[in-house]
Design brief:
- The complex is a heterodimer of chains A (about 260) and B (about 290).
- By secondary structure, chain A is an alpha/beta fold.
- Chain A is built from nine helices and twelve strands.
- In chain A, a hairpin with a 2-residue loop joins β6 and β7.
- In chain A, α4 packs across α5.
- Chain A starts with 10 loop residues before the first strand and ends with a helix.
- Chain B has about 290 residues and is mostly helical.
- Chain B is about 75% helix and about 5% strand.
- Chain B is built from twelve helices and two strands.
- In chain B, strands 1-2 form a two-stranded antiparallel sheet.
- In chain B, β1 and β2 form a beta hairpin.
- Chain B is flat, with a radius of gyration of 25 Å.
- Classes of the chains: A alpha/beta (about 260), B mainly alpha (about 290).
- The interface between A and B is medium-sized, with 34 and 24 residues.
Chain lengths: ~260, ~290
C-alpha cells in the first residue's frame, strides 16, 4: 500500500507529547505521532497499552492531561491564549469533530433511527446538505459498504458486521478528513470480521487517511502503511507495517506478536 | 391406558377464599344498596349538576397544567442534576429533597398563606398585593406543580441515565452540538423510559388535585363539599365525586395504555402517530 503514499503529502494529524492520566494512573506517557494525508496507521499493542485512549484524544472524546494534537493544522479541543490552553465549549468541539470520522468497537448506531436517518441526519444538520442530496449520498455509501437497499432497516435488525458497516457509512457521510477506528472488529463474531475489514480495505485504497486501533495483524500487515506498537503508555516501536510485524526489533513487540499470531 | 382423563390439581384453599369474597361483596352491596340513610335518587340529580361539571373542568385543568409545568421544570432540574457544576447539581438535589420530603398538603396550605410573610410583590415599578396574585387557584397550581416537578426530575433523570454512553459518544464524534445530541439522539430514546411513569403520575395527579380542596380551589371535591355543606347529602356527593374520579382515571389509564403501546414498540417498528408527534417535537428544535 505504501506505494500510493506521496512522502511529501501534507501532515493531517500531529500529536506532540500527549499525556493522559486517570487519577493517579498514567495511561499515556508522552505519545508523539504524525500521520500524512492518505496514510493508514495501525496502532497495535496489548490491551491497557493506551492505544484506544490515545485515539479518543484525537477527537477530544478524552481530555488529555498534557501535550497537544493538531488535525489539519488546527489545535484540537483548545484555544491557545498565551501560555495557556483553554478548553473549547461543546459547540466549538462539535465543529472540529465534523472533520474527524470515528468508528467504535460497539458500533453505537442510533437505536431509534433507521439506517437512512443514521447516515443522513448529521450532514443535513451540520453540513447544510439538502435532504435529497444527503439521501442520495447515503444510498451511495450503503452501496459502498454492500448494504444496498437497507435504508429503512433499524439497527436491531442488522447483524454486528452490518451495523459496523452502517457505522462506517455514517462517519463517511460527513466527508471527514480523517477516520479513526477504535477496535472496529473486536465485538464481532469471527465470521463477520472479514466484511468489515473488506470495507476498510476499500477505504484505504481510496486514499482515506486512517488511524486504526486493531488486533487484526493480517489486516495491519496488508493495509497499513505504518504500524505503531504501544505498550504501557509509550510508543515502543514504529515503522513500515511489514518490517515491524515480520521483523520486530523490540522484545516487547516480539512478545506481543508471538501471543497474537 | 392412554385414554385416562387428566384432572388438574384443585386448589381448595383458593376456592374457599373465593366463596368467602363473593359472599362479602354481595353482603356489602346489599347493605349499601338497601341503606335507608343513602338517598340514591339524589345521585343522578347531582351527577350532571352544573357546579359539579365546573369542578371537573377545574380538576382536569389543574391536572393538565400541573403536569405540563412539572414536566418542563422537571426536565430543567434533571439536566441541572446531571450537570458537572456542583452548585447546579446541588441545587437540584436540594430542591428534590425538600419538595419530596415535605407533605404536599403542607405545601398547598403554605402557598395559600404566602402573603403572611410576603405581603406585597414588589418588582420595582410594579407593586401588588400578594393576595391578588396568589389566589387559591394559583396557590394550588404552584403547590401541585412544584411538588410534582421534584418527582418528574427523578423520572426524567432516570430516563436520561438509561441511555447508553455510546449514543452520546457517537453523537459527539459525528459533530452534533450538545443541544442537537440531546434533542435528536438522547431525549427521543429516553422518552421510551420516561413515558410510562409519567402516565402513572398523571393518573395519580387526577386524584391528588382533590387535596387543593383544603384551600377551596374549586376543584371537583371542593364543589361537592360546597353542595353537601348546604344539603348534608355528604355520602351521596362523595359518591358522585368518586364516580367522576373513577371515570377520569379509567379514561386516563386507557390513554396511557394506547400511548405505551406506541412508545413501547420495539425500535425496529415505525412509530406511526407517536413518531409523527416526535417528528414535530424534533422539527421545533432544528435550530438547536
Amino acid at each position: 500500500m505504501s506505494e500510493r503514499l506521496d512522502p511529501s503529502s501534507a501532515i493531517v494529524v500531529e500529536a506532540i507529547d500527549v499525556h493522559k492520566s486517570f487519577g493517579p494512573l498514567e495511561v499515556l506517557k508522552g505519545i508523539n505521532l504524525s500521520v500524512r494525508k492518505g496514510e493508514v496507521v495501525c496502532l497495535l499493542g496489548p490491551s491497557g497499552s493506551g492505544k484506544s485512549t490515545f485515539l479518543r484524544c484525537i477527537n477530544h472524546l478524552e481530555r488529555m492531561t498534557r501535550g497537544r494534537i493538531l488535525v489539519d493544522g488546527h489545535l484540537i479541543g483548545y484555544h491557545e491564549r498565551g501560555s495557556t490552553l483553554h478548553e473549547m465549549n461543546g459547540r466549538e468541539l462539535a465543529v472540529q469533530r465534523r472533520d474527524i470520522g470515528m468508528v467504535f468497537q460497539r458500533f453505537n448506531l442510533f437505536a431509534h433511527q433507521n439506517v437512512l436517518t443514521n447516515i443522513s441526519q448529521a450532514p443535513i444538520l451540520n453540513r447544510g446538505q439538502s435532504k435529497e442530496a444527503a439521501f442520495a449520498r447515503a444510498k451511495e455509501l450503503l452501496k459502498m459498504v454492500d448494504l444496498e437497499g437497507r435504508e429503512q432497516t433499524y439497527p436491531s435488525q442488522l447483524s454486528g458486521g452490518q451495523q459496523q458497516r452502517v457505522a462506517i457509512a455514517r462517519a463517511l457521510a460527513m466527508d471527514p478528513k480523517l477516520m479513526l477506528f477504535d477496535e472496529p472488529t473486536s465485538a464481532l463474531d469471527p465470521e463477520l470480521v472479514g466484511e468489515v475489514l473488506g470495507v476498510m480495505r476499500k477505504l484505504a485504497a481510496g486514499g482515506m487517511t486512517m488511524i486504526v486501533v486493531t488486533h487484526e495483524m493480517a489486516f495491519a500487515r496488508d493495509v497499513a502503511d505504518r504500524v505503531v506498537f504501544m505498550d504501557q503508555g509509550v510508543v515502543v516501536e514504529e515503522g513500515p507495517a511489514r518490517d515491524v510485524i515480520d521483523n520486530p526489533q523490540h522484545d516487547r513487540t516480539r512478545a506481543f506478536l508471538k501471543r497474537v499470531h | 391406558m392412554s385414554a385416562h382423563k387428566i384432572v388438574p390439581a384443585r386448589h381448595w384453599g383458593q376456592r374457599l377464599v373465593a366463596v368467602f369474597l363473593i359472599a362479602t361483596v354481595i353482603f356489602g352491596v346489599y347493605v349499601v344498596a338497601t341503606s335507608r340513610h343513602i338517598s340514591w335518587s339524589t345521585i343522578p340529580q347531582y351527577i350532571f349538576d352544573e357546579t359539579i361539571l365546573d369542578g371537573i373542568r377545574l380538576t382536569i385543568l389543574f391536572t393538565v397544567l400541573a403536569m405540563v409545568i412539572s414536566i418542563l421544570a422537571g426536565a430543567i432540574l434533571a439536566t441541572m442534576r446531571l450537570a458537572t457544576n456542583p452548585i447546579l447539581s446541588g441545587f437540584a438535589s436540594l430542591y428534590i429533597w425538600f419538595f419530596r420530603g415535605t407533605p404536599l398538603l403542607v405545601q398547598i396550605i403554605f402557598w395559600f398563606n404566602i402573603q403572611l410573610f410576603v405581603p406585597t410583590i414588589d418588582i420595582g415599578f410594579l407593586q401588588v398585593d400578594t393576595n391578588v396574585v396568589v389566589t387559591a387557584f394559583v396557590a394550588a397550581l404552584l403547590a401541585l406543580s412544584l411538588n410534582e416537578a421534584a418527582y418528574m426530575a427523578e423520572i426524567i433523570r432516570g430516563g436520561l441515565l438509561a441511555i447508553d454512553d455510546g449514543q452520546h459518544e457517537a453523537a459527539k464524534a459525528l459533530g452534533y452540538t450538545p443541544t442537537q445530541a440531546m434533542i435528536r439522539i438522547i431525549f427521543p430514546q429516553a422518552l421510551r423510559v420516561i413515558i410510562p411513569p409519567i402516565g402513572n403520575q398523571t393518573i395519580s395527579m387526577l386524584k391528588t388535585t382533590s387535596l387543593v380542596s383544603v384551600v377551596a380551589a374549586q376543584d371537583l371535591l371542593t364543589r361537592a363539599q360546597n353542595i353537601y355543606a348546604r344539603n348534608f347529602l355528604i355520602i351521596e356527593l362523595l359518591i358522585v365525586a368518586s364516580l367522576w374520579y373513577l371515570l377520569m382515571t379509567t379514561v386516563a389509564s386507557g390513554l396511557q395504555y394506547i400511548i405505551e403501546q406506541r412508545v413501547g414498540r420495539s425500535s425496529r417498528q415505525p412509530l406511526g402517530a407517536w413518531g409523527a408527534i416526535l417528528r414535530v417535537m424534533r422539527a421545533e428544535g432544528t435550530k438547536g
